[in-house]
């Protein structure tokens, strides 16, 4: 199993391509769009063998990983558990008007009633393979 550092900004799968005598790895536009990476910034890059378990993970943005629990998660499954309480940062609002936060490995947590830049404490209510649904248990004190 591959251990992933909490300082990891992004994790995605890409092929190395040869272009004009150099080798290129394309960064998915979603990594820029969601703020995991910024254009014209320098990043340290780690490459994992495609046969590792990390191949099945999705983009990640753990700049706000503040988990209050001490639960450890298998890197191939969801990084949250039902009933878990954690602090999240709402990054955007989805089509239905619900707040959307990303936690480890880019895993999405949907939080009804939350707005971008809110930092509520939430309880995970339902966990699916690619998304979890949570409710606010303590509002962001800045929003008061």
Automatic annotation (TrEMBL):
InterPro entries: NA-bd_OB-fold, TRAM_dom. Residues 50-96 are annotated as: Disordered. Residues 50-61 have a biased composition (Low complexity). This is TRAM domain-containing protein. It holds the Pfam family TRAM. Residues 79-138 form the TRAM domain. Keywords: Plasmid. The keyword Signal does not apply.
């Amino acid at each position: 199993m591959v251990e992933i550092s909490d300082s990891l900004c992004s994790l995605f799968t890409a092929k190395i391509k040869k272009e004009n005598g150099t080798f290129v790895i394309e960064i998915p536009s979603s990594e820029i769009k969601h703020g995991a990476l910024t254009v014209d910034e320098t990043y340290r890059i780690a490459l994992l063998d495609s046969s590792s378990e990390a191949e099945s993970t999705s983009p990640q943005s753990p700049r706000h990983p503040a988990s209050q629990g001490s639960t450890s998660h298998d890197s191939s499954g969801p990084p949250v558990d039902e009933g878990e309480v954690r602090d999240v940062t709402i990054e955007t609002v989805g089509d239905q008007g619900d707040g959307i936060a990303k936690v480890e490995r880019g895993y999405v947590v949907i939080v009804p009633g939350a707005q971008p830049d809110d930092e509520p404490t939430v309880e995970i209510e339902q966990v699916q393979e690619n998304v979890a649904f949570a409710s606010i248990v303590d509002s962001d004190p800045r929003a008061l």
